[in-house]
Amino acid sequence: MATQKMLKFVTVGRQMPEKRDAASRSEDFHEIYREFAAAKAIEQASRCSQCGVPYCQSHCPLHNNIPDWLRLTAEGRTREAYLVSQQTNTFPEICGRICPQDRLCEGNCVIEQSGHGTVTIGAIEKYITDTAWEEGWVQPIAPLAERPESIGIIGAGPGGLAAADRLRRMGFQVTVYDRHDRAGGLMIYGIPGFKLEKHVVERRNALLAEGGVEFVLNANVGEDISFDAIRGKHDAVLIATGVYKTRDLDIDNAAARGVVRALDYLTASNRVDLGDEIPDYEDGELNARGKRVIVIGGGDTAMDCVRTAIRQGAQSVKCLYRRDRANMPGSQREVQNAEEEGVEFVWMSAPGSFAGHVTGEMMLAQEIDVDGDPVAVASVRVQKMRLGAPDVSGRQSPELIEGADYDEPADLVIKALGFEPEELPRLWGVEGLEVTRWGTIKADYQTHSTSLPGVYAVGDIVRGASLVVWAIRDGREAADSIANWLADAARVAAE
């Protein structure tokens, strides 16, 4: 009888790849987890209980065949595990690094619920695909046949790139437009290297280009090229722009020098990491070195900011969040990593104002210094909160505690309050593109088609700010819908 390769969770404990110690990893932007050795990946994969109803799979937006590729890994069949993994996921090596597994697959693992500790799904997924790259198993797209139809994709983030990959595999001619100078969207400029090293994204972009996907970069739709021109050039168009407009604070002195947007701050840091020269970083505006830093927010972007500030050499880093730890939206794993690296979390706290602002006729004079620039921030008035009744989503609403304010010194304040959609119909000068009351593009839930014929939309510009894995799913689904729509159009034309 063959030896049982699985169900070893009763004898083998959960183990993550070795994590670099906080002192050393805080000095650079390299990923904090080391690679699984083959033997360790096999051991950890063997802990899977091979559930009849795999909740890990059902709670994965891509419905990855997780039990199947865990079993193949446990049996030493890594190449087959990779082939199964990439059937449902366009970028498994990226999801293995940045997905909040504790809120998705791993958080719903059956053996986790029974107290044995979840299977380390993300780390094994990363191991499988990194091994595939090392062994040369990841090959450029090679369609069985070329098709004449052309698809234009606006946005080179995860949703747009996932759609580009799938459409190109079907043989379509695919052109991706993006306003930045590199493809990848927030994967390249928003997510720091300690979570996702940039070569991981760049090699995927290079593979797509080698497979026939055309990239048109530094192309800001509405300025460098019109939406109508893109639509006229292609048989179908996919909008995958993401959401980049930062939510702001309506408080005193919100425009003070030293109060910056999270995306500006992270983009500057990532560009420097990529070797670019960034004046706002060099002159200190977007550089935390030697500064008392306060980050406002409790999501994953806020975690990226606090950990980036630590690596830039900040004097101190504090994170203000208006709810408690249990109610924050960011990954608990990221909070733990941040605390290990020296970040202080100030729970049940919100900014009330920034120093240097007076009301009435003196406001303008007070906010402008002798050089004509806004006054530099000196401190944050911190308002203490408590949790009251639940809101419509079921989360407890924060309430202000009167008389509990205090001033916290700050040289740099980073606003990580989430993102909102830009007004695309107005910016692009396009009529008939319907949006929701939140400004997101209105698209069919299943087909991702918009109010304009042949125009589709996916990712954050439809969902609002969300996860990379959801954008990948949307992009893959939209690619199938576009292919079906073009096939129907071809049949009608033939008749």
Task: Report what the structure shows.
The chain is an alpha/beta fold. It has three domains: 8-135, Alpha-helical ferredoxin (Fumarate Reductase Iron-sulfur Protein, Chain B, domain 2, Orthogonal Bundle); 150-243 and 421-494, 3-Layer(bba) Sandwich (FAD/NAD(P)-binding domain), CATH 3.50.50; 251-416, FAD/NAD(P)-binding domain (3-Layer(bba) Sandwich). The protein contains 20 helices and 16 strands. Strand 1, helix 9 (158-169) and strand 2 form a beta-alpha-beta unit.
**What's the CATH architecture name of the largest domain?**
3-Layer(bba) Sandwich
Task: Give the strand tally.
Answer: 16
User: Which regions contain 5 or more consecutive residues with pLDDT less than 50?
Assistant: 357-371
Strand content: 5-15%
Mean pLDDT: 92
The named CATH superfamily of the largest domain: FAD/NAD(P)-binding domain
Taking the sheet with the most strands, its summary is: 5 strands, parallel
Strand order of the largest sheet: 3-2-1-4-16
Q: Percent range for helical residues? A: 25-40%
Could you give the distance between the termini?
Answer: 61 Å
Q: What is the number of helical segments per DSSP (H or I, 4+ residues)?
A: 20
Number of domains: 3
Nearest-angstrom radius of gyration?
24 Å
Shape: globular
The CATH class of the largest domain is identified as: Alpha Beta
CATH topology tier name of the largest domain: FAD/NAD(P)-binding domain
- Strand pairing plus helix content: what structural class? alpha/beta
